[in-house]
Amino acid sequence: MNRRAIGLALIAAVLALGAVVRVWTALNDRAYRSPIASSEHLPVPRDRGLAEIKQAEEAAAAAKPYEAPAYRTFPFAPSRVAVWIAAQLHLMFAAFVLAVPMFALIIEFIGYMTGDKRYDRLAYEFTKLLSTSFSFTASFGGLLTFLLIMLYPAFMNYLMSVFSPTFLPYALLFFCEAGFLYSYYYGWGKFHPLVHLGLGLGINVVGTAIMVIANAWASFMMTPQGVAPSGALIDLYAAFDNYSWMPINIHRFIGNIAFGGSIAAAYAAWKFLHATSDEERAHYDWMGYIGNFVAIAAFLPLPFAGYYLAKEIYAYNQALGIMMMGGAFSWLFIIQAVLIGNLFLAANYYLWLGMGRIDGVQAYQKYVKYLLGAIAVCFAVWATPHSLVATAGEIRNMGGTVHPILGYLGVMSAKNTAVNVLILTTYVSFLFYRRTGKQPTVSWARTGHVAQFLIFAVATSIVIFYGIYGYFVEAAVRISFSVPQVGTVLVAMAAMTVIDVFLMRGSAALGETRWGSVPASSQYCLIFIAVTFTWLMGLMGYVRSGLRSHWHVYGIMADTSVDAFTPTLGYATQIISVCVLLFFSLIAFVFWLASLHDKPDWGGAPSAPDAHAHEPKKVAAVT
Amino acid sequence: MKSPVGLNVVGVVVGATLFYTYIGQLVPQKELRPPAVIAISADMTPAQLAVIGGKIANDKGMCLTCHTVGAPPGPRRFPDLAGVADRAKTRIAGVDQREYFAMSLCQPDAFVVSGFVKGMPTINKAPIGLTDQELHAVIAWLESQGGQPTITLADPLPRCGAAS
Question: Taking chain B, what is the end-to-end CA distance rounded to the nearest angstrom?
């Protein structure tokens, strides 16, 4: 067929299609027309009817009263889940941004005092992670605020009626935080060291102030004070300084440091695993060690801050405390025990692997199996539930859900004892690590060793004594035993540290510390610790918030939305995992951005002469 | 073949997260809903009220979050409620059983049983906030713990203020 014929066929097809459309339109045009022949448009009864309907609609719209909605719905997921994820991600980035400047400042200060440039470089390396994370914190904070205003307008309105005087200072502090943070980062090497340290101090002071203001809002929701039963504000200061405010401040302050240290250590691990030179491996091994040291050092007192928070929750409302520890959320603490047990195991494992980088490790390696045994036993005790998940037959045989023997391990006496011994054991692991490759030279070395051992033995005995004695006294007395247990552990650690500092002063080195010579598994261990810390943070955030059950503000403002129920722990853990994976996806982006800094310019062109002049000079980290 | 570092790291992150999620599925799964509203009519007998009171004690009243009923002897944090109907008659001189129960619920700090500490919330105030009818039902249930319930909705509740 030639082109002409195709053209004609196409034209014919178009004409035929046009004819079909015209006939179809004519057949479907059923509007009534006036029978009077006229060139003017005359309204027919239908037009008048339509106009009346439109008029009525306009009148109804004009007379419609404004009704403030209590709730709106999120389009893709339950409103609560949307707020939950935004809040959790905001908190994770905020914790990181608040924590990193604390130890960056301390490390920079050590560098300034000792004149050792390695510390300066390390502090700068930590700070590089901050700028993008700060943006993420602010972005998720904005998202959270908009979601709350959009989805929970009545609740937000109430919260504003109580805390509005705190909003302006909060916003202004954010400006200050941005000013300090970016001056600290971009001003590295540009100012006198003391001025720069002052900027670092500014970030920390302002960041902490931001945190304590936000904590007042969150803690008020759980333990409201300073308001009438109707919710009317009576005393802003009392609303701010409510029962759980200070415990949450302390708990978050310490927890943020532990979390930030673990994430910074994960960054170092990531860099170590991708390092191409021994110098890089040495530097990032050291950085990972410092990050992990910060994380574990902050982690050890964290359970004590947790006790304080729980004590204040009990003091505010016994039922709230009982629901947390013995009611609906009691199983959550078994999940927590698994997480914390894993943290202790991983932290010790990392320290034991780290001993391998030091000559003269053999002296302490023989003790590792005993430490591992103690940790495993304590972990098992802590993770033993009071009542067991069992089949009907098993429950019949046991005479209930409480096992006749294991049931004794499921109560607080056993768990408090287990966690205190875990802390002491981890501390001993650290002490062994610290001593590896060193030989004390002081004349009283033997006495010092004996004194340290005695302190450890006595402290462990006291902790175990109170743990056993707790089974024979009333609950009101038993609860108070946690104080001497905690006090003993803290005093013992402090005393052993003081002795060790003097004992090891001027010690002889048995060999060299070969930074960078640790196996790759130690770095994956650091990443595992970071994931576990993040997951733990998500879990404890859930219990703090979920404890309010069907209340926006406990006992003051009820949640009447469709989401006013406490989901199962299984569902909660799935949401927590989503938050954790989202966080790690975003933090991987932060790591990648921070790594770009060290890459050569595009096209292979050499960097501008002064492009990185502010960076501290690279110094080999091998000692 | 050596696996790439990036893949290993993703494996550690996702693997650990999945492991903890799995642990979360192993524990008992319970969903907590806001307390259900139970209809109480004026013509209910004390026995019918006691049945409803038992449900309220277990749900909205949150009584059994702290208290036990017929638990084996041993140290405990809150009084066991088995046989409380008898004990309530003689606990405080000059205070009868019904007034004692009303006082325990509405003015819990006015009297604390020896060996225990303060901590009972005021039951007719938020966050628990039992209504007058619900208080009657719970008292009927308490009366049934070792005794016969006698209270009806027509009976006044001393010490419960505006709620009575």
Answer: 78
